[in-house]
Amino acid sequence: MSEILLVLLAGVAAGALNAVGGGGTFVALPALVAVGLSPVTANASSTVALAPGALAGAWVYRRQLAPVGTTSTGSLTAISVVGGGLGAGLVLLLPAVSFAAAVPWLLAFATLILAFGRRVSRAVGEATGRSVGMSSRAVLIAQFPLAVYGGYFGGAVGIIMLALWSIGLGLDTAASNPMRIAQLAAICLSASVLFLVASDALDSPLFLTTLLAGAVTGGFAGAHVALRLPARLLRGVVLTTAVTMTVLYFLRG
Question: Which domain, by its residues, includes 36?
């Protein structure tokens, strides 16, 4: 019962974190490893379990969805689906060591961009006399490796997306959060289909369903909370999450 409770609470926390600011993988994955699942199985299981929670959050945010620059929502989602599926395929073929080693540095990079990205964007715009803005093609090209990474491991992929849109397009973190959740849902759902068919994620159905139930609850509740947070506070939550996860991963070595 203590293991089930741990997984349930981890699911709620992960779903809420993903809805509010990102970083749910860093709660769900260690919890599954702690109850005895192998890292690869835990990775697949956490992706499958967090997908409905991300979908629940995207449903709450459906009326707040706005295009990323001039990029259509449909095109961006299609790229996320394809990349997420490819990333899941790589999980089944390649070792995760290289990605695991890169995670702290990716987090640190994303955190710095989240903290200073909009200032850099404005400074470059003032220096060049024109606004900084990625083209629709550039946004889609950049989204593809992010989606592959999201399907492969997924830690902080939403945070990195916000960072990319912040520095590349000058978009506000709070305004971009609904689209972040929608793309996270697309990546997770695509990867989950392959994991359910080809991985051993279903070998521990009790842990999987418990984490899933917690994630849906946390994702739905977290999205409602995020809708009511002032933009400045939401940006603070996102940045605090990014800083915390970066420090924890560097300390973990």
Answer: 2-252
| Confidence class for position 231, pLDDT limits 50, 70, 90 | low
Q: What is the DSSP string of 28-72?
A: HHHHHHHTT--HHHHHHHHHHHHHHHHHHHHHHTGGG---BTTB-
Per-residue pLDDT at 183 exceeds 80 = yes
Could you tell me the pTM of the whole model? Answer: 0.79
| pLDDT grade for 144, boundaries at 50, 70 and 90 | very high
Q: Which residues contact 55 (CB under 8 A, 6 or more apart)?
A: 185, 188, 189, 219
Interatomic CA distance for residues 153 and 192, integer angstroms = 12
Calculated CA dihedral for residues 132, 21, 184, 60, nearest 10 degrees: -110
Structural domain tally of the chain? Answer: 1
177 within 8 A of 234, measured Cβ to Cβ: yes
